[in-house]
Specification:
Strand content: 5-15%
Distance between the termini: 100 Å
Helix content: 55-70%
CATH superfamily of the largest domain: P-loop containing nucleotide triphosphate hydrolases
Number of strands: 10
Number of domains: 6
CATH architecture of the largest domain: 3-Layer(aba) Sandwich
Shape: extended
Strand order of the largest sheet: 2-3-4-1-5
Low-confidence stretches: 381-409
Radius of gyration: 41 Å
CATH class of the largest domain: Alpha Beta
């Protein structure tokens, strides 16, 4: 049985130019080496599996290399490079802070700093997961980190920079490592496939890269898992089956059914997905991602945001031509709401099905909104269609002139809508509109009915009803109680609200703006005003009521209440000849 080495170790980069997706870090470190301005302390921070420890080892190897290349890479031929490659270098010390995080471990490290390197110029200390050190260990490390010997260089690596104390951060050159893009991961996997003589579909490699979520080490681990089962040929179907990933075809079919408003097909597809063992939440997330990708394809300038293979890219482009932007945005919003509320839903399947059914009716809702907009535009003045009619409207007309015009002007249904709008907004006068006699009489009747419906409803009873209705909708108990307890009086157009306490006065005044607007609309009277008055007598009455409520009971009153609740108390008093104390 051959000794198997996982791809993450076998293909770990040995040079900066082989590091994937971290060109900004490699370039800066090479420039520092070229200028001889190498700091004594570095902090490499970023997500897991992006090359922090790898870059630390490459830098340590280059620092002690005896024959650096013109590109400032290690030669891999000198004794220092060979001992490093064989893990036998005494000048490079690695410490795992996750298991060596105490003060004693740091003291042992600082003791090693005292000894000069046996071979080469530098003694390099690589401390991985440095955020795991305790505060005491950090403090013990401070002095050594700030003023080390000229031959000592520290490289710290962490995934959680926020956990490192500021005094440590201030002593290091900080390099932020980026998440590795899907394109870079796919390119690296292709190069490994070429070296291993493995045939792999591009869509399959894209799925692996997306599943890795920016961590190259995770991508290589997934790659090893797939190759152990699929052998020398990696297919898209094998990857989605092995990783339990939903096939893209489901999302394309469901989106087509949503666009066709075929609710039955959507429900059947969703049922098939559930029967295959997929979690409904995974489906919701996948559908949202699919809708986002379709929306990205609506504009050629955003196609670069699509992280899929060429075959899928073409399918997304085709579906984007069929899906309106309004549909995609609304469906994305529904999918987002479904995802947010998923954990709180007790019936998970029904929760997702309701979201899908709403998506099925997006087209009808959009058409309804467009129809309503057109109707609103038709109702918008200026009134009439033709310039001749507008000129006629600008000429003042009397009722007699209007009637004499007879059948000279016949207004269309749209003109009648515009005329009604103009009359009610005050931009037209009834007597100045030329029209047929029967239409004139109809408008007069309609305007009389409309004006009657808008007459003021300002009475004390109506005002009290609307006042209490507003108070009932408030969340604050104090404000609601203040409005309910207020005594209302109507004098002319002024509604006076009489309150007792200063707190009630302030609470009512806080709601005055919104309350006045609502009362004016509900009572059809824009001249209404509200005045809040604090009455000292009302305050005194309320204080007396409170005093009566909170007054403590006397001993006799307590005894009487005990007798009412339990008749045996009287018998107990007589039997033991008890006396009522003071």
């Amino acid at each position: 049985m051959s000794h198997f080495i996982v791809s993450a170790r076998k293909y770990r980069p040995q040079r900066f130019q082989d590091v994937v997706g971290q060109g900004h870090v490699a370039g800066t470190l090479k420039n520092a080496l070229a200028s001889g301005q190498v700091a004594h302390a570095f902090l490499f921070t970023g997500p897991r599996g992006v090359g922090k420890t790898t870059c630390a080892r490459i830098l340590a190897k280059i620092l002690n290399c005896e024959n650096r290349t013109p590109e400032f890479e290690a030669c891999n031929e000198c004794s220092s490079c060979k001992s490093f490659n064989e893990n036998a270098s005494f000048n490079i010390i690695e410490l795992d802070a996750a298991s060596n995080n105490s003060v004693e471990h740091i003291r042992a490290l600082t003791e090693q700093v005292r000894f000069q390197p046996q071979q080469g110029k530098y003694k390099v200390f690589i401390i991985d997961e440095v955020h795991m050190l305790s505060n005491q260990a950090f403090n013990a490390f401070l002095k050594t980190l700030e003023e080390p010997p000229s031959y000592a260089i520290f490289i710290l690596a962490t995934t959680e920079k926020h956990k490192i104390i500021p005094t440590i951060l201030s002593r290091c050159q900080i390099f932020d490592f980026r998440r590795i893009t899907v394109a870079d991961t796919v390119a690296h996997l292709k190069s490994i496939c070429a070296q291993e003589h493995i045939e792999a579909e591009e869509d399959a490699l894209h799925i692996i890269a997306q599943k890795a979520d920016g961590a190259l080490r995770d991508a290589l681990s997934i790659f090893d898992r797939i190759t152990s089962g699929a052998g020398k040929k990696i297919t898209y179907d094998a990857v989605i089956e092995n990783l339990n990933v939903l096939d893209y075809d489901y999302f394309f079919q469901i989106t087509d059914a949503l666009l066709a408003e075929d609710a039955a097909a959507v429900m059947n597809h969703f049922d098939e997905i559930l029967r295959k063992g997929f979690d409904p939440e995974v489906f919701v997330l996948g559908l949202a991602e699919h809708l986002r990708n379709v929306l990205v394809c609506k504009d050629a300038s955003t196609l670069g945001l699509l992280e899929v293979g060429e075959n899928l890219r073409e399918r997304y482009k085709q579906q984007a031509t069929l899906a309106p932007s309004a549909f995609l945005l609304t469906a994305l919003s529904l999918a987002n709401d479904c995802d947010i509320n998923f954990k709180m839903a007790r019936h998970k399947r029904l929760h997702v099905e309701m979201a899908l059914l709403k998506m099925c009716h997006i087209g009808r809702a959009v058409k309804g909104a467009e129809l309503e907009k057109k109707t609103t535009d038709l109702n918008r003045p200026p009134a009439l269609q033709t310039p001749q009619t507008l000129q006629t409207l600008q000429t003042p007309q009397t009722p007699s002139n209007v009637r004499e015009m007879g059948n000279a002007h016949t207004l269309s249904s749209k003109d009648m809508i515009d005329v009604r709008k103009g009359l009610r907004q005050g931009s037209m006068k009834l007597e100045s509109i030329p029209m047929r006699l029967d239409a004139f009489d109809q408008l007069v009747e309609e305007e009389e009915i409309h004006r009657a419906s808008l007459e003021s409803r300002l009475t004390l009873e109506n005002a009290r009803t609307e006042w209490n209705a507003y108070a009932a909708l408030l969340d604050s108990n104090l404000v609601r109680l203040a409005l309910t307890n207020a005594e209302l009086r109507l004098e002319d157009k002024v509604l006076k609200a009489i309150v007792g306490t200063t707190i009630e006065l302030n609470n009512v005044k806080a709601e005055l703006g919104r309350l006045l607007d609502i009362l004016r609309k509900r009572l059809h009277d824009n001249a209404l005003k509200i005045e809040v008055i604090q009455d000292e007598r009302k305050q005194a009455e309320q204080a007396q009521q409170v005093a009566r409520v909170v007054r403590p009971l006397t001993t006799k009153e307590k005894l009487d209440k005990m007798k009412e609740s339990n008749p045996l108390v009287d018998d107990l008093i007589r039997r033991f000849d008890l006396k009522l104390g003071e």
